[in-house]
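Case study B.
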Amino acid sequence: MMHRIIRDHLEEVLAGPGSAPEHPAGEHLAACAECREQVAVMREQAAVLRQFHAESEPEPRPGFYARVMDRIEAQAPLSVWTLFFDSMFGRRIALASLALALLIGVYVISSEQMPDPEIAGVGGLPQAKLVTNLTPNEATDLPQDFVFSSQPRLTAGAPDQDAVLVNLVTYREQ
Amino acid sequence: MDHRNSEEAALVRRVQAGDELAFRDMVERYQSKVFSIIFGILRNHNDAEDIAQQVFSKIYFSIRNFDFRSSLLTWIYKITVNECYDYLRKKRVRRLVYESDFSAEESQRMEASEPAVDPAPLADARLAQRDLAVKLLSKVSEEDRSLILLKEVEGHSVEELAQMTGMNENTIKVKLFRTRQKLLKAAQRLGRVGGAVR
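Model:
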C-alpha cells in the first residue's frame, strides 16, 4: 500500500522533482522501501507508455479527405425512402402500392355514395305498417288454426302486402 | 478554461450546423495528429489510414454530441484511442475465428513449425513491451486510458490536463493514480511487474 504523502505527490515524484531529497515525498521515499519499489515500477510503466509517442507525425496519402467523405457516405444511415427510390424494384413496388391504394379509395368512396335499397326504402315510407289489412272484426273471425304464410313484419313495398292479401283471398275461397 | 469561446469552438459550431467546408478544415487541421496517435499505438501505416478514416467518420456523425466540456483535441484523442482499441479487439476476434477453423492437430503443427515471418522483430524486447502495454491499457476504462496516454505519451502536465478536460487538478491526480495502480495490478496478474518482460 502506497503511503499518502507519495500518493499526493505521485506525479511530481514520477516526473523527477518529487524524488529530490529536500522534497517531503523524496524524504519519505528514502526511508520507505515499499513506496520506493512501487514508484520504481510505475516509472517503468510510464517509460513503456512513452514508447507510443510517434517520433514524426506521419502524413496521410493525398486524397485523404475524399476517402473520408466516401466512408461517411457509405456509413450514412439509410432512409426508408431511399429503399423505394434508389432501386427499380422498389420503385415498382411503390407504384403498385399507390395504384392499389387508389383503387381501394375509389371503391370505398363509390360504395358509400350508392343508396342501400333497404335503408332507402324505410326512409322513403311515410309510415311503416303491419301488413294484415284486416278490420278488427275480420281478425277475430279467423279460425284458431289460421296461420299467416309469413310473419307479420314491417315492410316498405307492395310485394309483401300483396302476398298477405293473396293468402287472405285464398283462405276465403276455402 | 472555457472551451465555448475558442477558435476551435467556432469551427465545431460550423460543423455542427452542417458546414462541409468547416468539416474539411477540421479534417485537415487534425489529420496529422490523429495519424500520429494511431501510428504510435499500432505502428502500421495501412492500419493507420483505415482507422483515421473511421475516426473522422465517427467525428462527423457524433459532432452534435460534443458539449464543449473538454477541448476538441481531447475529444478527438479519446475517439482515436478508442478506435485503435476497437480495431485491436476485432483483429483478435478475427484471429481467434481463423484459428478455430483448424483442427487441434493442425494448430499444434502450425505452432511447432517455423514462423513464416522473420523472427527477429518478434524477439525484440521493446516490441514485446509495447504489446504488453497495449494489453494492460485494455484493462482500464476509455477515459482513464486516454488520460494516461495524454499524460505520458503527449507529455501534458496535470495543469494542462485539467484545462483540456474541464476537471480540476486534484481529480486528474486521483484518476492518474488509480489508473497507474490498475496497470500495476494488471501487470502483476500477468506475472510481469511494471510493463517489462522479464
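The longest helix of chain A spans residues 88-113. The remaining cases will be described in the next quarterly update.
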